């Protein structure tokens, strides 16, 4: 668990202007589902104290028709609440300067949203709960994520916007206060974003009979399912690319009732791949070379869900996917007895084939986890 | 994807070709781990290790997934995917809106003179030609006319009598002198939508549009959306219409551009089907270049430059607006790459910060003269970025208009009659000095906004303004202007408690004004109209209460009563 990881989860189910913004049932369940994944040690593994939830409070879930609630409470979550939550993470309380974290920031939004007509790249904002008539305050998730990258607040930023992206000509992203300078460190910050729809597209929420009739946004539902099901690499991680492709490939099958909306829109980081933990039942599998390993040597690991080639170096094994689609470095175990080299992978409990290529020419079939180690 | 890794010894890779029958689909190859191995357009050539794979094939929002296996020991692997069933205004075989118009298109020989071809069709026309469908098509054709850029009507489409009752098809070749034209569509409430067209001496536009009905709503008629049109350039020497593959590629590229995709490569495909030695379609090159420039890298800058050069070669030495826009985009992208390379070469680990600001354009771009409006919306975005503070855009388009939030073509809306020769006559007057009274009025308006941004009572006044807009937009001329409405709506930010805490009033006002997306000149004229709207709705006097200086109010009223400046900008 890294205390440098943070998350802000925004779920808006009720709006002051319920003529323009229909009541939603998905956001409370969506936030709960994402939060559950974030708190799981095999999921996001984010400390609970570092997760900020901005949800429509129970008192607003059945408000009087239109107008403010009778008890005078404000319509929340609103911009002020979000900005306060963001600044609590982003700013040093004594100096007011940005404070950096060597971890990951999750920004999650579920509710009614829009994109500006002038956007040339994928961007979106959530209407704040107090949007009313032609007053349209909003929480522009993308703008905050871009600002966090621009000043290198975190090492990685994951932005998830489960909302529509209707094009708005007269609404502007309300975040002028964010710093407009760019740090040289921002080039290394990885910003990975998923939007429920393309620009001008609609997000959907649906009732799932298989889940006690609960309503979920389709993006959130598909995302968590993909995180749980997508194949992992040799380190037991799901890459952002694999996550996106898994979701897209299975989308039409998962949501076939009526007209399935187009799948979500994913924007990959230009600073490198991001990886997610998997909640699959993976097994730690040790591999040991019992005799000195002549360098250079290659190994090939294949199964129904994996095809990887490893190149053994002095202290590590560099694993690569087909056509160099991915690279993972697995160090040799430092505690191995002299004359032996071993490394450990996290693999699904299915049959794999390991080939050690020339000069050793060894082939082993094994089921991950069934033996203490595969000895070569 | 180049490999910097020695291939494993047992890596018996099999030469593989994955292609789509339409030659135009976006292709994404995925391995068993759902990692992307390769992506491209139309065809992928690569060596694959034996095993299972999937291909995502996509055009627009239509997608299908094909699974295949590369067999161990095989000599090669070839996978061809069937055509995607998508909607296309230009008739392409295999699309769900296909009609065989080949005989019609070839029966009407291409004119030897420059001009344009317009085809509007109901895709069900050859199947069920019913009265309602015909009435709908006739109504839609009746809304359209061709004008010159200065607003002179060239012809109304309905008067060409080229509407075929039986086939539910409007098909017309219109001879036009080379130059800029506008396809105008009547809209509601004295407004019209305008799609710019360019007739080059060697490249003549063809426009295809669909007249549709909503099958899920009892065939209710759907108005033609200009942004959904398919527009291509036909070469003057073309003997016959472009084939399916060429048309399909253009349509796929247009859809990708409209959806903000970053995949490209339609114009660089070798087409074995192409039977003639016609030059590359410049429209395809423009779209491809725009797709590339969004994610430009040092590696693809050379490709973008080649595409721009080929389009310049096709359309002539005078800078075409979309070419100019791409050159600006390329300049900004190259500057960014250069900054990054300098930082990396420096090797310094010390952090530095840069204010995000576009570098000034080099002289050849800064002083370029725009010959007319661009064709693509993305081009408009770059032109605005480069020339916001200059008169370049207003010299080319010296009339009141509002850029529409389209995804593909550059389309604007305007009030009927607002674009006319007078606009150009006024614009052509060299050295007309800005009226000092007008400048003072603009400064006074900005002072008003800054005071509002710092005033506690501003919220009340702004609420009154929003109410005035909601109630009076149809009564007040000034308030009915979409740009004035947009400005007035965005002024709500001045009362935002978060922004008021963090920003000073000057910065806040600057951000609000900048977010209008207008040139400085248009912004000034919008402020002028805004002030007029305040007066019409008796909101000017209320400003004194919220702390706006009475001097500022006096300056504004002086301008309102002044007869010195009658110039409509």
Topology of this structure?
The complex is a heterodimer of chains A (376) and B (569).
Chain A: E1 6-11, H1 26-39, E2 51-55, H2 58-61, H3 79-90, E3 104-110, E4 113-116, E5 125-127, E6 138-139, H4 141-150, E7 156-162, E8 166-168, E9 181-183, E10 190-195, E11 205-208, E12 214-217, H5 218-229, E13 237-239, H6 240-254, E14 265-267, E15 275-277, E16 282-289, E17 297-302, E18 307-312, E19 316-320, E20 327-331, E21 341-348, E22 351-356, E23 362-367, E24 373-375
Parallel strand pairs in A: 1-2, 1-3, 3-7, 4-8, 7-10, 16-24
Antiparallel strand pairs in A: 4-5, 5-6, 10-14, 11-12, 13-15, 16-21, 17-18, 17-22, 18-19, 19-20, 22-23
Helix pairs in contact in A: 5-6
Chain B: E1 14-20, E2 26-30, E3 36-41, E4 43-48, E5 51-59, E6 62-70, E7 77-81, H1 102-107, E8 115-121, H2 131-142, E9 144-148, E10 153-156, E11 163-164, E12 169-175, E13 179-186, E14 191-199, E15 203-210, E16 212-214, E17 220-222, E18 230-235, H3 244-258, H4 282-293, H5 298-315, H6 321-346, E19 353-355, H7 363-366, H8 377-387, H9 392-396, E20 402-403, E21 412-415, H10 421-427, H11 436-454, H12 458-472, H13 477-480, H14 482-490, H15 497-502, H16 505-514, H17 520-536, H18 542-545, H19 550-561
Parallel strand pairs in B: 1-7, 8-15
Antiparallel strand pairs in B: 1-4, 2-3, 2-5, 5-6, 8-12, 9-10, 9-13, 11-12, 13-14, 14-21, 15-18, 16-17, 20-21
Helix pairs in contact in B: 3-4, 4-5, 4-6, 5-6, 6-8, 11-16, 11-17, 11-19, 14-17
What does this structure look like?
The complex is a heterodimer of chains A (376) and B (569). Chain A is an alpha/beta fold. Chain A has helices spanning 26-39, 58-61, 79-90, 141-150, 218-229, 240-254, and strands spanning 6-11, 51-55, 104-110, 113-116, 125-127, 138-139, 156-162, 166-168, 181-183, 190-195, 205-208, 214-217, 237-239, 265-267, 275-277, 282-289, 297-302, 307-312, 316-320, 327-331, 341-348, 351-356, 362-367, 373-375. In chain A, the strands form six sheets. In chain A, strands 2-1-3-7-10-14 form a six-stranded mixed sheet, with helices on both faces. The longest helix of chain A has 15 residues, at 240-254. Chain B is α+β, with helices and mostly antiparallel strands and 569 residues long. Chain B is 37% helix and 21% strand.
